[in-house]
């Protein structure tokens, strides 16, 4: 599956991007190759921590120490620790982290250097294998969490609410597996739900929980059976999927 990068429609907070790029240029000098912003803050209606990927020619312990000295300042400003990777390591790890890199490819913006996602190929077989592991881990987590909740509605509601963002990610990965080119977060999520033939009602309820106070705690607990069934359906779907 070959995907070509496109500029994100919603620009990140420039002050954060500028500060990270300036700091990394100070640390790495001409060894800094690319800096790319990624994550939910690029999607409409989402905020949160500013995240970026930085590709460099090499990473030494001294580089890590220099970045560590800046970490508290980054945290205070809402900037996540940059994901630092040597260029060659990045290229050789596309098959190891296909879902993570594909999500970056879906919504990213170049801040410095050459775009590392230009011409990137992520194999569908790698995506399918990673989807299977992710979905089945999520399913196990939900079952174990429900047992540990001991039948307490509030604890069940917390389990459902806390896992809602991961459920959305599962659906976007299913969409990606099926070749969806949607760059919009909501559209990609819906594409995945339709591909797996999930009930629209439970998908809407769970995704609404990504917004604070979207559903009351008791309502979140009420949708657990349908939610569990939806994830079980995802597991069956990915098992039967063929490249």
* Helical amount: 55-70%
The helix-and-strand class reads alpha+beta
Q: Sketch the major β-sheet.
A: 4 strands, mixed
List low-confidence stretches: 1-13
According to DSSP, the number of beta strands is: 4
Q: Beta-sheet strand percentage? A: 5-15%
Based on CA inertia axes, which overall geometry fits?
globular
Quickly count the domains.
Answer: 2
Spatial arrangement of strands, main beta sheet: 3-2-1-4
Q: What string gives the helices and strands in order?
A: HEEHHEHHEHHHHHH
By DSSP (H or I, 4+ residues per run), the number of helices equals 11
> Assembly state here?
single chain
Average per-residue pLDDT, rounded, comes to 87
Distance between the termini: 10 Å
Secondary-structure blueprint of this entry?
Layout lengths: L13 H15 L3 E7 L12 E6 L4 H8 L2 H6 L6 E4 H6 L5 H9 L1 E6 L10 H26 L3 H25 L7 H11 L4 H9 L8 H6 L1 H17 L3
Parallel strand pairs: 2-3
Antiparallel strand pairs: 1-2, 1-4
Helix pairs in contact: 6-7, 6-11, 7-8, 7-11
Notes on the protein architecture:
It is a single chain. By secondary structure, the protein is an alpha+beta fold. It folds into 2 domains: 14-113, Beta Polymerase, domain 2 (2-Layer Sandwich); 124-240. The protein has 11 helices and 4 strands; from the N terminus they run H-E-E-H-H-E-H-H-E-H-H-H-H-H-H. The protein has helices spanning 14-28, 61-68, 71-76, 87-92, 98-106, 124-149, 153-177, 185-195, 200-208, 217-222, 224-240; strands spanning 32-38, 51-56, 83-86, 108-113. The radius of gyration is 19 Å and the shape is globular. Residues 1-13 have low confidence and may be disordered.
């Amino acid at each position: 599956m070959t995907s070509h990068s496109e500029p994100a429609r919603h620009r990140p907070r420039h002050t954060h991007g500028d500060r990270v790029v300036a700091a990394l240029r100070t640390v790495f000098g001409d060894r800094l190759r690319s800096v790319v912003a990624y994550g939910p803050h690029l999607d409409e209606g989402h905020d949160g921590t500013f995240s970026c990927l930085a590709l460099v020619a090499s990473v030494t312990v001294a580089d890590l120490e220099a970045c560590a000295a800046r970490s508290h300042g980054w945290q205070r400003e809402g900037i996540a620790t940059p994901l630092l990777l040597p260029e060659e390591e990045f290229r050789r790890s596309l098959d190891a982290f296909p879902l993570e890199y594909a999500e970056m490819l879906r919504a990213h913006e170049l801040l410095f250097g050459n775009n590392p996602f230009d011409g990137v190929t992520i194999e569908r077989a790698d995506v399918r294998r990673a989807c299977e592991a992710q979905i089945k881990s999520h399913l196990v987590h939900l079952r174990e969490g429900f047992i540990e909740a001991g039948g307490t509605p509030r604890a069940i509601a917390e389990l459902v609410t806390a896992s809602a963002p991961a459920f959305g990610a599962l659906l976007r990965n299913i969409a990606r597996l099926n070749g969806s080119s949607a760059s919009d977060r909501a559209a990609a999520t819906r594409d995945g739900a339709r591909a797996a033939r999930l009930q629209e009602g439970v998908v809407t309820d769970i995704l609404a929980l990504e917004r604070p106070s979207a559903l009351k705690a008791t309502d979140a607990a009420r949708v657990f059976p349908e939610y569990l069934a939806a994830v079980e359906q995802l597991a069956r779907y990915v098992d039967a999927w063929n490249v």
